[in-house]
Predict the 3D structure of the following.
Amino acid sequence: MPPRPKPGSKADRDALRTELLAVGAPLAAISAEMRARFGCRPREAWRHAHGWTLQEAADRFNALAGAAGPATDASLLGKWERWPAPAGRRVTLPVLTLLADLYSASLEDLLDLEDRRALPEADLRLLRHQTATPGSAPTAAAPSAPEPVAPLTGTALIHTAADESAQWAQWAEVTNCGPVSLDQFGADTRRFASDYLEAQDPLAVFGQTRRLLNRVWELLYGHQHLEQRQKLFTTAGYLSAMMAWMTSDLGHRSQAETHARAAMLCADMAGNPGLHAWTWSTRSKLAFWDGQFRAAIQHAERGAAYQAPGTVSILLHCQSADAWAEAGARAEAQAALGRAQDAAELGLSTTLHDQVGGLFSCLAGRHANYGAAVHLRGGSASEALAHADRGLAALRQQRVRALGTEAQLHITRAGAHLLACEPEGVLDALGPVLALPAEHRTAPVRRRLRDLARDTAASPMGDSGTGRRLQDAIETAVREAARALSPVAPTDAWIGDHD
């Protein structure tokens, strides 16, 4: 026997509708049963009686109304159904008449006592006039040709206008979220940004972030005060940027770009300089690993122009240095590293507070990771090794263990030993990375490992026993990680980034 659908779910409603239709129940009876069983408002119950989703009903409504009539979408139709609840939108008589035609119902069918209490007196008078004649049709006249009504004049006009303003003010002061919810969203965002750095299961954090982002999107479809709305857009922006960062780490560049564009829109809506800067940092990351080094530099420079608070300026200058170094411009790379160092030293004399932290912070360990990589690309083994050692020491002092950054620093140490022709040092440095659980070797780590294998093959130790063992170990580690992340990692052809 198949499992029973969840009570109140669409499957449950559809099963009830099918059963009632099978015994010849009319639409009015099906609607009444929907209201009795599931507590639906009248207009929602009639939609369920037809078996339509909000979008299907909205499409049919627009087709019925035509170009000259009122238009709706799924969100607005849902608000008409919920009214007069705070999250609803007042339904007008022209809309009601169209809904009545759409659902083959009467105006009376679509209204209950709560609706009538909330309707303006002028609308109630019109309803009484339309239903006063015995034997009238069960549905109201089309909105383009309503029954003639005497225009309001004098005191009645003044009172009705005041009632309309009062109703609008009642709607305007209602919000679908409050300060406690906003604080909780911020706290969850900060937690996920930290959890991702040391996640035992990166995909679990990805899923949690996605669920929270969808909750914030849902609220943004509703109504909030201006300050609350700006905070929601800020939260949505950081979550979208986090989704972009994680998606790229999991090997999906084009999907990451989609999240980054959403983050940019949120930053514009929120007017938050810090969010703008971190979003440009995210876009710089994506451009770098797409081989668009000039775009990566431009994105980083645009982010730095916001002069946002916190440590984002350090990261943006580091990203610029990374792109210059990859493009072979050593002088420009060193100059960008100098600007990153200046920003970090400024932080020693002032308190650099990041709004979110975790993934959206650039503390000493992350800063050193970029410096080590730039010096390694520049051919300076000693400088790369010194930066990597400082970075690992800094990470040990952090409250949150950044596994990706830690792994990349070990790989840089191995690369420095390779550059210095120290085969045993290469194996020792790489040991902690190879010992990581496979699911922790995300795209950045796998890319750095493959680069190291390539450099090893081209080095004097490439044909040695040590070199071959190293290359075999790296290939095994990459394959294990690809299998562990197979639901989200289609290929290693494009993978990688600095954490």
